[in-house]
């Protein structure tokens, strides 16, 4: 337990940040899951629409600091390659 005023404040801040990070990560994972389902379904138009909705969610998660910006870039790149491979 925190014994000092500053440590108690740090604990409160950490709880808020942890909650926000969980919310952001959950939104991102849901968007990626929806995209993966669209790709598995084989519908190219649905996959493109899902990709267009997923990319901003991943970018926002990185901008909030929940995930690293290079991690976000790698995720976006891999998902885009999967959708583009469907066309070929």
Structural notes for this entry:
With 88 residues, this protein is mainly alpha-helical. The protein has one domain (25-87): Up-down Bundle (Methane Monooxygenase Hydroxylase, Chain G, domain 1), CATH 1.20.58. It has helices at residues 5-41, 44-63, 69-87. Helix 2 (44-63) packs antiparallel against helix 3 (69-87). The chain is elongated.
Brief write-up:
The protein is mainly alpha-helical and 88 residues long.
Which blocks of ≥5 consecutive residues have pLDDT under 50? none
Number of helices: 3
The shape is elongated
The overall average pLDDT, rounded, is 96
Rounded to the nearest angstrom, the radius of gyration is: 17 Å
- How large a portion of the residues is in β-strands, by DSSP E? under 5%
Provide the succession of SSEs.
HHH
Number of strands: 0
Biggest sheet descriptor: none
CATH fold descriptor: Methane Monooxygenase Hydroxylase, Chain G, domain 1
So what's the CATH class?
Mainly Alpha
Quaternary state of this entry equals single chain
Distance between the termini: 58 Å
CATH architecture: Up-down Bundle
Structural class: mainly alpha
Helix proportion of residues, in percent? over 70%
Number of domains: 1
Q: Which short descriptors sum up this protein?
A:
3 helices, mainly alpha
How are the SSEs ordered, and which strands pair?
Blueprint: H1 5-41, H2 44-63, H3 69-87
